[in-house]
Every structure is written in C-alpha cells, then in structure tokens.
Design a protein that fits this description.
Elements (H helix, E strand, L loop, with lengths): L2 E11 L8 E3 L1 E5 L2 E2 L5 E4 L17 E6 L2 E6 L2 E6 L7 E6 L2 E7 L2 H11 L4 E4 L26 E5 H13 L14 E4 L9 E6 L10 E10 L18 H7 L1 E2 L2 E9 L5 E4 L3 E6 L1
Parallel strand pairs: 12-13
Antiparallel strand pairs: 1-2, 1-13, 1-19, 3-4, 3-18, 5-11, 6-7, 7-8, 9-10, 10-11, 12-17, 14-15, 14-19, 15-17, 16-17
Length: about 280
Amino acid sequence: MDKVSVELSALWIYPLKSARGIPLAAAEITPFGFKNDRRWMLVDTAGHFLSQRELPLMAQLEMELTPHGLSCRYQASLCHIPFLKQTPSVKTVRLWRSEVPAWVYPNTINQWFSDHLKVTCQLVYMPDSTFRETNPRYAPGQQVSFADGYPYLLANQSTLDTLNQHLNKGGHPPVTIEHFRPNMVFEGDTAYGEYHWKTLHLPALPKANTPPYRFEVVKPCERCVMVNNNPSSGERSQEPLRTLHKYNRFQDKVIFGQNACSPNQTGRLIVGMKGYIYVH
C-alpha cells in the first residue's frame, strides 16, 4: 500500500456546534474527539438541534475558551458560559438519528441566546456519561460528540487551493478553510488526494508515553448549503457549493474533506507535526 508524507498545518475546534471555530496550536485527544469540540449545542423547545442551516446568524457567535468555561460574543453582547460542575436538569436531545441525554443550562443563559438569535432555544452540554455512537454502517462502536457524524474531519490544503482557482476563473472571491469547519488541515498531498486516504499516522510527541497516533478515514464529508455561509457574518451566497458541484462529487454527492475516527483515547497533537497517510 502506498503512503503520502504530510504535515499538520492547522487544528480547529468548535465548542458550540455551528458557532465560530477556534484555531489551536495544540489539541488534546479525548474519547469524544478533540477536547471541548462540539460538546455544547443549541436546541429548540422540542430538543432538536439548531445549526447555521436554518440559523445563519449563528456564524456571528464568536467563541473563546476561558479557565472557567466559554465566552460567547454576539456583536457587542457577551455571555459567560461556565463549565457545569454538577448535573443540572437533563433533557433528551435529537441530532440527526441520535437521541441522547444532555445537561441543560440555566434560563438566564438560554434567554441570552434566544434574544439574539430570535428563536426560543436552550443551551445543552454533552456530559462524559453520554455515549453517542457514530453511524454503525461506517464506524461501528465509535463515539462522537455533537459533531454531525464523526469525531474528526480532515481537510487537504491543496484541494482548497484548487477550489479557489476554479472560483477565481468563474469570477468569484476565494473561500477560506473556515467555510468547511475541519478539525485538521494537512499539506503535502495533491488536490483531491484525500479521497484515496485510508489511514493517517502521526508520531507520538517526545516524552508523551503514548503510542503513535492513528486515525482511520471513514468516508467523504457530504456538503450542504452551510458552506455558502460567510463564516464570520452568516451571509449566504451561492458559492462555493455551486462550483464544488462541478468538481467535488462522490456518488452524486457534493463532498469536501474526509471524516475519521481514532482508537487513541488520549494524546496531544501540535501544528507542524509530520506524518504519513496510507492511500488506496
């Protein structure tokens, strides 16, 4: 089996599902994926998850990790979201085909989000005791947070560069990797090479006392209208989805990036790590 040498060029987490991401210099591996990645989520009164698909203004929710929790800014307004120390009220929430228990935040925080997003909603948190399974058809027995389907999303910088070349030829402005919300971005492979990725290997850090890190590539990530949202304002256009439809399709689905899982339960990745990917 052939392999490609790559470098980890960016790390991202998205603590609140569908809010802005946070770039990191280093990320900790946990059973859910990266630490604090999509452990928080907004739900409607029926417990169904909310996202930028129906609420593009969520792109204006700017997140920051603090020693005591999260800080969420919407324009000039700021909301402090503490880490929950004990079990508050519990609610069953629904995310695609999953129904899992989650902890509900107090009404003062829920009202802040409801006022700014103009929809009645609640903020919930996935505790360590909750187990949400990935799609058993592709990754049976694997755990995932409130991410759409899998704990890690991998992206190839060369594919983004090629997409921007196509957008430029069509008279459209370039897009950033933030449109696609990956956890890891890699350099070193050719454009579209990620659709042949099978297994990612990254070395353990010196003195980390862990085996080398391995990530199993599960399936390409199907894309929806959310990639057309400006990642800072939420303003929606027709690109890049229209151009992706011409160049990035798999089994008649528009794709960008690869979903992945990992047997590693602990560890730490840093930007600049070099590794390799087995391809098929």
